[in-house]
Amino acid sequence: MSQVLNNSVAQATGDLYAEVQAFYARQMRRADSLDIEGFAETFTDDGEVVHADGGRTAGRAEMIAAMRARLPRYEGVSTQHWFGQLLIERLADGALGVSYYTLVAQMGEEGLSFQPTYTVDDVLVRDPGGSLRTRSRIIRRSGPVRR
Amino acid sequence: MSQVLNNSVAQATGDLYAEVQAFYARQMRRADSLDIEGFAETFTDDGEVVHADGGRTAGRAEMIAAMRARLPRYEGVSTQHWFGQLLIERLADGALGVSYYTLVAQMGEEGLSFQPTYTVDDVLVRDPGGSLRTRSRIIRRSGPVRR
Amino acid sequence: MSQVLNNSVAQATGDLYAEVQAFYARQMRRADSLDIEGFAETFTDDGEVVHADGGRTAGRAEMIAAMRARLPRYEGVSTQHWFGQLLIERLADGALGVSYYTLVAQMGEEGLSFQPTYTVDDVLVRDPGGSLRTRSRIIRRSGPVRR
């Protein structure tokens, strides 16, 4: 994060900014429609996710199994994952480091509710066809600030 | 939506992404300030809106009449329409297909509340002066996902 | 605002849109991590802020003192400042006028809550190194619309 917060990081172009935003818009359409296999395809084969509770999946098969296990809590509700305050930096190996806030809105029979907010740090890479995929994702639950 | 979700859709440039975002920022400033005529001007003369409840308006006169009828529920509160996870695709006829999530925050005497979340599919076209206008809008209330 | 709402305002390029979004993403990471000095550095030396309650700070020293005084209400909670519906216009003196909606999400021991929504009007300028800084900020609490 210290790199991301440094103003001296090379500025992402408008084209890259739009491409990254579109990548997440497609990835989250799949997550929110519970298209688990389609969602997993937006990660690299060996994509890793570290959840806020410390849980971790490595590779698409584990990711799909973990998402299937969480399915019951998403049935009967409609979920929208919102991303905000996106920061993009170009990493030394050509990958992209992307940091963003998340807000998750859920419409159920009792109306709209929100899940806890998170801050996420992704590493995105290009597949051989040039499309972006998520290689790693670290999800941090926003904790109280202590000074 | 299937086209929008397909990675093979031509990537919107950064300039187009910024232009579309600015179009919506202006359109929603007008909606949120209850400038009904100004809002209607951001649609084409024959602009159509299909609401989540199935209601439909065709053309600016109907749109203005329908908005006037809904005015009482917006008086005394302050409304912010937020758009997220925007997806832009270029359609065959040169129009733009744009899909986005909406979150509507309202500040009233009892504090902040939220309307239900929606997913919206717009078709935007350019007027003779080159400015974007909304030709059609389909608003879908996010329903529970059933598998 | 009338200028911002006018379609004839020169369109911000994708590069500028991405740069301004990244500027705010960094500025708000500092605010939300209670890095008061780092936050103040994103303003010009003589930067002015007019708060929604009419309070006003002029210059970094006053800004830092005012933020220190407000610190207790941010301790023990985690804050995310979200910005939306961003509008950018180029002002006559080369500065940028930027208008946006804000949504402030706070995670505390009792879960997620939201502060009132605001509309903010900023003037951004470039420092000698070419980086953006905020020269002035006017924060308006969204009030009920009366016609």
Automatic annotation (TrEMBL), chains A, B, C:
Residues 17-130 form the SnoaL-like domain. InterPro entries: NTF2-like_dom_sf (IPR032710), SnoaL-like (IPR037401). This is Nuclear transport factor 2 family protein. It comes from Streptomyces tendae.
